[in-house]
Amino acid sequence: MSLLEAQGLSVRFGTQEAVADVTFSVAPGERFGIIGESGSGKTMTALAVSGLLPEGAASEGSIRFDGQPLPANERAMARLRGKRIGMVFQEPMTALNPLMRIGAQIAEAMSINLPEGASADAVMALLDEVGLASLHAARFPHQLSGGQRQRVMIAMALASEPDLLIADEPTSALDLITQRRVLDLIAEICERRGMALLFISHDLRAVAALCSRVAVMHGGRMIESGETGAVFGAPRESYTRRLVAATRLQREADEPAIGTVLLAAEAVTRDYADRRWFRRGPALRAVDGVSLSARQGECLAIVGPSGCGKTTLARMLVGLDTATSGSFRFEGRSYRGADLPAELRRDLSLVFQDPFGSFDPRLTVAHSVGEPLRLEHGLDPATRRRRVEEALVDVGLDAAMLDRYPHEFSGGQRQRLAIARALVTRPKLVVLDEPVSALDVSVRGEVLALLARLRAEHGLTYVLISHDLDMVRTMADRVLVMEAGRIVEEGRPEDLFDTPRHRLTRELVAARLPDVG
Amino acid sequence: MRRLLQHPSLAFGLGATLLFVIAGLASLVWTPYPIEQINVARRFLGPSPEHWLGTDNLGRDMLALVMSGTFTSFRIAALSVLIGAGIGVPLGLAAAVWGGAVEWVVLRLTDFMFAFPAVIVAILIATLLGPGDANAVIAIGIFNIPVFARVARGGAMSINTLDFVAAARLAGLGNAAIALRHLLPNITSLIIVQGTIQLSLGILAEAGLSYIGLGTQPPATSLGLMLRDAQGMFLVHPWLTIVPGLAIVFIVIALNLAGDGLRDALDPRLRQGTNDVLA
Amino acid sequence: MTAFIIRRLIGFAVTLFLAAAAIFAVLNVLPGDPAQFTLGLNASPRAVEQLRAQMGLDRPALERFFEWVFGMLHGDFGQSYTQRAPVAKLIWERVGVTIPLALMAMVISAAVGLPLGILAARRRGKPLDTMLMVLAQTGIAIPNFWFGMMLTLVFAVGLRWLPPGGFTPWQENPGLAFRSLILPSLALALPQASILARVMRTALVDVTGQDFIRTARAKGLTLGEAVWRHGVRNALLPVLTIMGLQFAFLIAGTIIVENVFYLPGLGRLIYTAVSERDLVLVQGATIILVLAVTATMLVTDLAYALVDPRLRERVAP
User: Fold this and answer.
1) How far is the C-alpha of C121 from the C-alpha of C200, rounded, in Å?
2) Residues 224-263 of C with CB under 8 A from B
3) Reduced to 3 states, what is the DSSP secondary structure of residue A68?
4) Is pLDDT at A24 greater than 70 in this prediction?
5) Could you tell me the pLDDT band of residue A274, with boundaries at 50, 70 and 90?
6) Which residue among A14, B66, C54, C144 is least enclosed by CB atoms within 10 Å?
7) Does domain A298-320+340-511 fall into CATH 3.40.50.300?
8) ipTM of the complex in this document
């Protein structure tokens, strides 16, 4: 008999259908995964199954837990949920009560659901099980890192010894190495406790690594389901095929010619002084004596865990921040950051990570994309408009879209606009800060292909900042690995990933999940 | 216009406010009776066909007084909002954009100004210059400055961290240009909503100041002044306080409804632009 | 934590000092000749000279300022010209009316406003919520002194339950003194309670949408339980800030309400002092009011830090 069974489940918000006619089941101890991108209805399904649907949602169909339909009474549902279902959500940063100590929050999970209540020993045992030191029990959430908070969430979910663990994107907000650790932890716990797992994610590799059976959701419907190997190895639906293909990115065949050094950094350091009142504490060193060079036509990648300083380095490079010591050289001129000479600014540009925050919602696309043209003097309005149109066409968008507003475009389109803005001044070097990580998986391939084409066509030089090793492998000619502000290893992608030397590189490569299909 | 009708509280609030404003403006050119016209024989009359709201202790027509008083109250409150926003918003923006020493100075300044509620400022000015409605404008206006500065700074700070500001810096825009082109347009709706709130607070504050004699002085009239005149005899003739009091209540409710409605109407549009999750 | 408290205390002292400077500047420097100003244009030159000597105006302004500040630190606020008594004594007598009044109003407004706000938030969208919010909307719009007049009409004149005005000192008859403050504090409390109800409701509704409420429900709590156990305390944070600000307004409001009920508080004292141009008295009373307001904000900040652990380590700009 299955532990959880959903039949013909539909969730509606007014006239909008978030989930349509979804049927699946999870057996006791089984690990079942649901793959979907944003808007696929996967989260709503998880919420429906646990009785946490938001106000205004109407659900139809039947959901049975352990043979019984879900109780209609709110209190009974809440108790069922607490006792037998454990839940882990996506954003660890906001999921914990900021005013309560960790230990107290975990203890609460126990005192609600267990007849014997909570005890300090039990809390410590849970913390130990999720790999947290016992001293964290007295701490507040803001004193823990994202990965640590997610472990606390898992501990709370396990407190009542549930039969089913529902994990909805538990690792998307974490960095690569921590992601792998948390996933391993979840797998290990499910194994040891004989718990069933409902794992929901957009990350095919993560789902494939953890789950024996899998289902794919798209547009609110479950379009395909079955054994993991079967679904990913021989997908029936074209959407599933697209998703699987997107996990295997291909490198462009033609190699552009690489010339002389265009940009160099010499012993660049960035310190943040501890500005507290009475103590002159040690400075925070975000970037520590970094030297690098990028040659004309090359794609140089900088990888590293979050907090390693790669973004700070990128910002200094383009002039948004200033180095405390050391300097950069671009086209023979040297600068420290914000003092980047005005004439050089149009030869350098930056594509931001988040397509949703990088455009002023009150300005038309023409305005925003054309903004960098202020760096070129003596352009009359007609020429400016033409340049903006060219840039739009260059990234595969229609010039007629110029007078629309950012919210009218999808994420993938907005990222193309961001690239257009970066190219409108015809720069020589473009810094790409996590250019596709905020996009849906199925769209990433197109944007990367666009970037590769533009590099070849315009002879651009890229400095690529990312944590995604697979993306780096397809795009980069040379890779630098950063940790705690320093470059710890350097080399060609194949060399680096096949035979890593430095400990961090090894960890990064090891954190990579196995290929799918 | 269609959007207006979707929000009943906004439509109602704005409509009622407009009614009062028009009545107030009308008082400049016409009132049922001149407000100075004293007719002691016809004092303390209740509502009647000749005097829709009755007469006061000196036989003056209450409707005329209310119309004129409304205008004064609105004028003073509006001027104080202009002062508050005109000085406060640039200060708040400057603090958000420049940060560092500028922010520190602005924050200390706003802290300092918060220590002086309008009444206290009015007291100080009254001691120096004597009471008057300019007094009220300055006092209320000064207190509005830190309010607008806080709101502007808060709004600007949350926008400042968004990437499009960094993109503007890359395009060569300086701090001032960024504040003007990118920050100010995006906090306008916040400022407008706060403006309606401060407007209603200003009307209440003006009433209070005039009531204790530090605001509008005769022969001009304001709603607060009407209450002051009625103070001595309201136990015997309550009508004299009920009329101006209710007028204040209705105006403030109308303004608050308009403010709430504005907030509801303007917010979702803002949110829609930046929080769209579908790819 | 201690660094935070020390920083705040220093800020408090600095603000107070600057406020004193501003008040002194306005009242002593701007009028030109304070003595002439006090006596008016028709005063005889000899009377002006006498007053100048009495006020010590032959000494430089800066010296007089520091003398005033140091005097205050020792409890000496100078001598009132019009009432021929130490300012400190006059203020102390009046403070016995103003402060209890403000405190009573604060307690009543919190005791009424906060629970109603919580109730409205829990019944969001239902008729009770709408009704409560309409009441709150009206409550905010009513000028507190006008409400005082209405209350007097009903309770003092109509029902004769409470005195319509006046005040017997606490030493003479504490019971009567207390009863004299009931109507005024109710008058002050009405708009405050309405504001608190609205703010509490908004804060609670905001908090209910937060992720940690969902986590609490995932643990097995119903929505109501989750909001009560986790939400209310978090919602209190913004409410606390508002309460601090509101107390400052309350103190200022007492000045006006005292007029309605003929209470011998700070407000009446200031008003008389202003109309008689008694600069020393105005100075002293104003700085006391500013002190009360600033102290309230300091207490609010500290209370906020007590409740929210995140603030204790933050480096303030």
Assistant:
1) 8
2) 245, 248-249, 251-253, 255-256, 259-260
3) strand
4) yes
5) low
6) A14
7) yes
8) 0.80
Q: pLDDT band at residue A254, thresholds of 50, 70 and 90? A: low
Nearest CA-CA distance, residue B111 and chain C, Å: 7
List the structure tokens of C260: 């309605």
pLDDT digits (tens, 9 = 90+) for C3-50: 778 888 888 888 888 888 888 888 877 776 777 777 776 778 887 787
Show the CA angle centred on residue C303, arms to residues C301 and C307, nearest 5°: 115
A-C contacts (CB, under 8 Å):
82
With CB atoms and an 8 Å threshold, state whether B124 touches C23: yes
pLDDT score for C47: 79
pTM: 0.83
Cβ-based contacts of A356 with chain B (< 8 Å): 274-276
Nearest to C22 by CA among B112, B80, B138: B112
Note whether C109 and C253 are within 8 A (CB): no
Nearest CA in chain A to B164: A358
CB A298 within 8 A of CB A284: no
Q: A354 to chain B: nearest residue by CA?
A: B163
| Minimum CA–CA partner of A39 in chain B | B278
The two tokens of residue B134 are: 């300019």
pLDDT at residue A462 in the model: 93
Q: Quick one: average pLDDT of C172-201?
A: 88
- Interface probe for B, chosen from A169, A349, A362, A447 (most Cβ of B below 10 Å), is A362
Task: Give all chains having 3 or more CB-to-CB distances under 8 Å with chain B.
Answer: A, C
Q: What average pLDDT does chain B have? A: 83
Which residues of chain C neighbour B107 with C-beta distances below 8 Å? Answer: 317
In chain A, which residues fall in CATH 3.40.50.300? Answer: 4-246, 298-320+340-511
Four-residue CA torsion sign, A443, A399, B180, B137? negative
Give the nearest chain C residue to B257 (CA atoms). Answer: C137
- Indicate if the pLDDT at residue B75 is higher than 80: yes
Cα–Cα distance for residue pair A416/A355, rounded to 1 Å:
9
Q: Judge: A360–B186 Cβ closer than 8 Å, yes or no.
A: yes
Alpha-helical runs (H) found in A371-502: 381-394, 411-423, 441-458, 469-475, 493-498
Asked if A408 contacts B269 with a C-beta cutoff of 8 angstroms, the reply is no
B128 contacts in chain C (CB < 8 Å): 26-27, 30-31
Q: Does A39 touch chain B (CB under 8 A)?
A: yes
- What is the β-pairing status of strands A196-201 and A429-433? unpaired
Q: Give the residue from chain C lying closest to A83, CA to CA.
A: C220
- Give the tens place of pLDDT for each residue, B3-25: 666 677 778 888 888 888 888 88
Structure tokens at B278: 């579908």
Choose the CATH number for B2-29+62-270 among 1.10.1040.10, 1.10.3720.10, 3.40.50.1110, 1.10.760.10: 1.10.3720.10
Q: Is A336 helix (H, G, I), strand (E, B) or coil?
A: coil
C80-137 residue pLDDT tens:
777 778 888 888 888 888 888 988 999 999 999 999 999 998 888 888 888 898 899 8
Q: What is the largest CA-CA distance in chain A?
A: 78
Virtual CA dihedral for B38, B40, B43, B47, nearest 10 degrees?
-50
Strand-pairing partners, residue A480, are A302, A490
Which range, of A171-180, A222-231, A235-244, averages the lowest pLDDT?
A171-180
pLDDT above 50 (res A321): yes
CA torsion through residues A414, A418, A423, A428, sign: negative
The per-residue pLDDT for C316 is: 43
- Cα–Cα dist A230/A236, whole Å: 9
Pairwise CA distance, residues A105 & C228, whole Å: 15
CATH code that applies to domain A4-246: 3.40.50.300
Residue C268 pLDDT exceeds 50: yes
